[in-house]
Each structure stands twice: as structure tokens, then as C-alpha cells.
Amino acid sequence: xxxxxxxxxxxxxxxxxxxxxxxxxxxxxxxxxxxxxxxxxxxxxxxxxxxxxxxxxxxxxxxxxxxxxxxxxxxxxxxxxxxxxxxxxxxxxxxxxxxxxxxxxxxxxxxxxxxxxxxxxxxxxxxxxxxxxxxxxxxxxxxxxxxxxxxxxxxxxxxxxxxxxxxxxxxxxxxxxxxxxxxxxxxxxxxxxxxxxxxxxxxxxxxxxxxxxxxxxxxxxxxxxxxxxxxxxxxxxxxxxxxxxxxxxxxxxxxxxxxxxxxxxxxxxxxxxxxxxxxxxxxxxxxxxxxxxxxxxxxxxxxxxxxxxxxxxxxxxxxxxxxxxxxxxxxxxxxxxxxxxxxxxxxxxxxxxxxxxxxxxxxxxxxxxxxxxxxxxxxxxxxxxxxxxxxxxxxxxxxxxxxxxxxxxxxxxxxxxxxxxxxxxxxxxxxxxxxxxxxxxxxxxxxxxxxxxxxxxxxxxxxxxxxxxxxxxxxxxxxxxxxxxxxxxxxxxxxxxxxxxxxxxxxxxxxxxxxxxxxxxxxxxxxxxxxxxxxxxxxxxxxxxxxxxxxxxxxxxxxxxxxxxxxxxxxxxxxxxxxxxxxxxxxxxxxxxxxxxxxxxxxxxxxxxxxxxxxxxxxxxxxxxxxxxxxxxxxxxxxxxxxxxxxxxxxxxxxxxxxxxxxxxxxxxxxxxxxxxxxxxxxxxxxxxxxxxxxxxxxxxxxxxxxxxxxxxxxxxxxxxxxxxxxxxxxxxxxxxxxxxxxxxxxxxxxxxxxxxxxxxxxxxxxxxxxxxxxxxxxxxxxxxxxxxxxxxxxxxxxxxxxxxxxxxxxxxxxxxxxxxxxxxxxxxxxxxxxxxxxxxxxxxxxxxxxxxxxxxxxxxxxxxxxxxxxxxxxxxxxxxxxxxxxxxxxxxxxxxxxxxxxxxxxxxxxxxxxxxxxxxxxxxxxxxxxxxxxxxxxxxxxxxxxxxxxxxxxxxxxxxxxxxxxxxxxxxxxxxxxxxxxxxxxxxxxxxxxxxxxxxxxxxxxxxxxxxxxxxxxxxxxxxxxxxxxxxxx
Length: 1035
Description:
This protein is of the alpha+beta class. It has helices at 41-53, 133-144, 148-155, 162-167, 170-181, 184-216, 223-230, 236-300, 302-367, 370-435, 441-516, 546-589, 597-667, 677-746, 752-759, 765-793, 801-863, 873-896, 938-959, 979-994, 1006-1011, and strands at residues 2-11, 14-21, 30-35, 78-85, 88-95, 98-101, 108-111, 114-120, 126-130, 156-157, 901-905, 920-924, 929-932, 967-971, 998-1002, 1014-1021, 1024-1031. Residues 240-355, 407-506, 549-590, 625-660, 758-852 form a coiled coil.
């Protein structure tokens, strides 16, 4: 980054507009800023820093303090910086939050900070990149690649900043380097390691507690297991070993139960099979009774079946005569039809003969009219020869008339176009006049839109504050409830623990008294082994029992869980409260003091009103611009049309003259009566129709004559043919009737009436045969079924099923009892196995968590500084950064001290518990020893501090991603240096500017002004300060 031009208005001691044009330095890379104390030298650095980041160069000044006290109240404080970065130029403008005069009325109002960033193109145009403070800050960080504190460390070394890093203690250096290199991540690694170690420790404890609960939950099978579970100091291994033994016994018992159930099952299955066989036998007796009943019913139908079979025989005979009857019917119908067709043919022959005589007479009349038809044809042929000439003459008349009309229309159109052109010119003048006050409408719309966005963003922040505050109230209410719940369950837990301890003591006392009853002097105690019993336990009344103790243990465990849950819930709510308060403070810092939601909404309403007005003006401008462009295009088109109209008038005039000439020539060849085309065409059509009608009548009569001659001949032939067919059909009818009579006698029918009666059974033959066959089959089947069932039930009787059911129910009851016992035992086995596997899984989990805890805890101890050098992980990283800074600084310090001094980092462990690793020493080549930098003289410490600051700037720049920064400002007194040291310091700065950097130095040292030919002089007046460049002694 290289500044090109800085413009300050009402900023610091500069009352009016102060412009500092760095391009005046041309190829010079170093200049001195001189002036009296308080004149505003450091303010130049503040203005550059404020323009870039919205903050001054020093930590003890804020942007709001930079308004000039010399400035006119109506003049706003603002800073504009034109700078160059990576071959491109940018313009940034900022105004701090400040009071300004009200637009209406007296007094002042608070104006919020503003910022905007533009890119200056090679054509000199400004392209907007950001239009508000937030977007501008983000864009600047993106362009520069540095935060404000890094920017100041690299580009600006303000007053009092040289000695901070050099003389600071190890802890103070840690804070400074933390800010510069953003090493909070490494501290977070330490915290995360501690959190993980704590979580693992809690997880291991929780798993052990769960394991104890699971072991206590094992359902005891044996008395040995019950006694183990009642003990407090029993081991997990003892319980699991006993559980294995119990499982073996339970498996044996379960096997015995299964064998008993198998025997019961077999006995029950035998009874069930006997029952099924008895049911089948009783079913056979039922079927025999049903079969006998069916046979009785069939015997009753035998007489009707005999009659049905006789009817079937008559129907079959009648069916054989149906074809003969059908032949007689068809022959009779054919004879009747033949007679009808013969009579019809006779009538047709009469009609055809009568029509032929009429047509013959008409054809002879048309043959006699041939001379009349020839004369009409000759007149038609003459008109047809003249038709083309008459039509062309008529077209010539029409063409001459059209040319005359087109010429007149072209002249009228030309007059109208001239009038429209005059109207269009007047409209263009008016549109240009209307557009003049709207030229800046687009810029005003963008400004208004940016203002609305800015205020809406502030309103969103305010609403978010209100929303968070409402949530905070609910959270605080929840905190009170959670705290009350926690205290209640904690008290209940404490009470339950006391009760459990009391019950356990009573239970132990009761067990001890039971043992004491069996003590005998001289015999060892089963508990302590002593043969003397001076103070045996005494039986006391107690309500304690093993069951009550276990119940109380479960209640205490449940209350402990509730207490832990309540404690975690309370901690979570308090964390949310602190987070909400932090969020509110962050949001409030973005809203100007004293500005309420109604103020913001009022400002937003005014801004929207301005935006709406600007939008209307912009729309109006667009409409007028579009209309102007349209009118111009319309004018251009109209001018073309005027020219085209003039050419058209000339063309139409020429066409009209030519049409008149052609018309005159044609009049000479067309007779007067034929010049009227309508009359001519009417005569032509009438003659044409008459010719066509004459020919059509002749053709029609001729065609009819030939047609009816043919029809008459055909009708005579048809009459002859149909007379022969009638004779033949009568002969066939007689033959069919004789055949039918002969077959009736052969089949035994007395007459035709007997046949007709038998024929009524024909359509029922299929059903009647089916009924007869079905009856015969049923008779046969039922006789076979009765024979079969008699064989099956011979010498057998029905069985009583109820006795068998009672026996089966008794066996099912016994089997159910054994099944329930086996299921209960199997459930106990499965539950015991499940608990055993769960305990084993927890054991594996505990081993894994404890192993992970040992590793994580060790890493945390190392990262936290619990090591030989007492260096934390973060401080170790910072020490690496400091080594890089010292390496760069020593290159410059060697030049300023003729190689005498070199800065070193103290690596020895500090005394006591103080953490170390960032203390600085100065190695003196003259003595060959190191000493603390605080022992250096004023001039020596200045050199060391300057070298350290330059090294720090270089390292910060490198760790910021190699950002290209081509400027450095140094605000520090060089007056503590002797002439030789001053020369060495200047040479060091010269080395910096030899790399292409622009170096600006604030100093009162005369030698610097003499050595550097460019200086920026700041002069102080009673109305404010002024600054200007002076080169090589020229004022």
C-alpha cells in the first residue's frame, strides 16, 4: 500500500480542508515531517489509519475524538485517501460519528459514521466497491490482508511504542504477540485438552458407578450370591465368579424342567390324537344316517323319472322330422317369392315400354331444331373473339383511374407528413427541457438506497437487541427456577444419603448382634478371630432390612442423578445468560448512543420517503429518456418517409400519363356498344348459356333414347326368366311335402298334430336327459356310499368326546405351570447374562477411558507449562515468532552498533513459579556476556527498539501472507542519538527505502532535515494548522 493523496477536513488541528499530495515526492523515498509540538504531525498518521480502518494510529485516541475544535460547526469532519495497491488505485472516504447542525431548527443531532470505497480506473472513473462502514471494513481487510493492529505495527511506529516490546516482561510480551499473531488458537488447544481430560475423568467415574449399579441389580439365585450383594466391600470379580456358578446350576435346573415338559407334551399329544380318531368315527356314523335319508328321497322320485324317459324318446323322434318340416317351409316360401318376382317383372316391362315411347318422341323434336342451334353458336363465337380486347380496354380504364387516385393520395400523405414533422420537433424540444432538472436522479437514488440499507441494518441490530433482552428475561426466570430446583433436589439427596447411612448402621448392628448370640468364651470370633469377647453387640430394635436398604440406595442414586442433571441445566442456563449479555453489548456498540428504536424507525421512514422520491425521479427520468429516444427515432423514420413520398408522387404522375396514352389507342379498335364491359359480359354470358342449354337438351334426349331402349329389352328378358323360376319352385314344394308325410308314418306319428305335441319336448331334451342321468348317478353313488359306511362302522359304537377333553385340559394345566416356571428361570438366566455382558463392556470402556485419560492428562500438563522449562504451548509458539523477529532485528542492530550488540531470547527457566521464555537479553561483543535489555543506555535502547520494531514489521508482514506494503512512518525522537548513531540509524532507514518503501519520519533533529531533501512542514496558527511539502531548501 502506498499513499498518493490524503485530504483531511475538520480533522484534528486542521480546521478546514488540508490536502497532502504524496505524488509531489516523485522519486524520493524518504521525507521528514517537522513542526512544533501539538501542531498535527502525528495527526497525519491518525488520518491515514482512520481512512484505512476507522481508527487512529494510537491506542489512546478514538475516532470520535478527532474532530477539529477550530472547525466551523456547519463543516463535517471527513477524511479521503487516494492510495495505490498492486498496480491499482483506490479512493476511500470516511466520516466519524459526530454532532452536526440540525437541518431545521436550532441545536445539533448525532450523525453516524460513514464510509465508502471506490476503485479509480485508468479512464479516471470511480467504481463503487462498498457503500457503508461494515462493507468498507470487510473490503479493506480483503484488499490489505491485515488487521488494524498489524497495519500499525508494519506501517506506523507511533510515539512511545518503540520501548513497549523491548522492555516488556515475559507476560506483557505474551499479550502483545498474542494480538499481533492471533495465537489464541494455541491457548484454546490447552483449554480443549483440559476440557477433554475432565470429561474423560468424569466418564470413567460414571462408568464405574454404572458398573456398581449393574452388579447390585443382578437377581440373586443362590444364598451365596444374595450374601455377596449385601456386602459393601465385595469385589466385582467375586460377584462375577458366583454368577458363573449360579448360571451353571440354573442351566441344570432348566434342563430338568425341559425333560418334564417333554413328557407332559407327549402324554397330551397322545390324548389329542385319540380325541381326533374318536371325532372321525362319530363323523362316519353321522354320514351313514345322512346317506340313508338321501336314498329314501330318491326312491320317492322313481315314477316321475319313468315318465320323463318316455317324453325324452318322443322328443328324439320329433327332432328327426324337424329338417323335413324346415324343407317344406323353405320350398313354400321360395314358391311364393318366385310368384311375386314374376308379377313385379310384368309391371316393370309395362312401365319401361311407356317411358320409351315418350323419350323417342322428344329425341325426334330435338333433331328438328339443329339450324336454330347453329345460328346461336355463330353469334357466341364472335363475342368470344372480342372478349380479351374488351377486358383489356376495361383494365386500361381502371388502371388510369387507380393511377390518378394514387397520385392524389401521395400528395395528401405528403402534406400530413410535413405537419407531423413540425409536431415532432416541438415535442423533442419540450422533452429535453423536462429532462434538465432530472440529470442527477440516478445518483440521488443510489445515495438514498444506501442510506435506507444503512438505517435498516441498524434497525435490525436494535430489534435483535430487544429480542435478546426478552430472551434474557426468560433465561433469568429459568435460572431462578433451575437454581430452586437444584437446591431442592440437592437437599433431598443429602437427606436420602443420611437416611441410607443410618439404615446401614442399623443393619450392621443387627447382624453383629446375631453373631454375638453365638459367641462362646475360649472360641474364636468369626469376624476378628479373638477368643475373648469383652463387649459383645447387643440386640436393638430396628426397622432396617436388606430390602429397605436396597430401596433407599436406589432412591439415593436416583436423587443423585437428578441433582447432577439440575446442576448441569443451571450451568447451561447461566452460560446462555452470559452469552446473551455479551451479544447485547456487541450489538449496542454498533448503535450510536441515545438512539432509540423510534428514532431509528423515524429516520428510516424519512430515508424511505427520500428513496421513494428519488425512485420516482429516476423512473420519470427513464421514461422521459426513453420517450426522447423514441421521438428521435420517430423523426428519423418520418424524414425517410417524406423523401420516399416525394419519389412516390413523381412515379405515380409518370404512371398516370402512360395509362392515358394506352387508353386512347385502345378506343380506336373497340366499337362503341362494346366499351361498356358489364353490358358486353352480360350479352356474352347469355349467349354462352343458350349455346350450352341447346347442346345439353340434345345430349339429354339422345342419351335417354338409348338408355330406355336398353331398359325395355332388359325388362322383356326378366319377365321370361321369372315365369320359368315360378314353375320350378312349385315343383320343389310338392316334392318336400311328400317326403314329410312319408317320414311321419315311418316314425309312428298318427298325424301332424301328434308330431307337433312331441316337438314341444325338443328344446328341453338336453335338460331332461341331464336330469335323468343325474338321477341314475345319484342312485348308484348313494348305494355305494351306504355299503362303504356299513363296512367302516361294523361292530363299532359312538365315543363320548367330553371325557377326552377333560383329560387334555388337565394335562395342559400342568404343562402351563411348568412352562411358566421354565420361562421365569430362563428370564433370570438371560437377565443375568445381559448384566454380566454389560459389566464386561463397562470394564472395557473403563480401561479404554483410563488409558485415554492418562495420555490426554499428560498432554495437558505439558501444554499447560508443567514441564522443566515452565513454557506453555502458546508461549512456545510465541517464542518461535520472537526468534524470527530477533533474527530480522539483529541484522539491522548490527549495522547501527557496528556489530557490538545482538538481541537474544532468555531460554533459562525463571525463578519460582513464574512462567518464562519471552524475556530479552542483549549480548555485548565487547564483554562477551549477555545482560538484560533494561540495562542498556538511552541511545542503545533506542537502537535496539528501532531494530526490534523494524524486525517486527517485517515478520508481521511475512506472516500476514506476504502483503505488499510500500510505506512506513516513524514517529519517534532521534534526539537521544549521538551523530555517529544517528548516521547509523539513518543508514538503516535508507536500507528500508532502498527496497522501494516510502519512509516518513517525524523528528525535530536538525541533522535529519539536512540529510533528507524532502520535508512536510506543519505550521500552527490560531485558526488551525497547515501542512505543505518543501524540497531542497525551496519554500
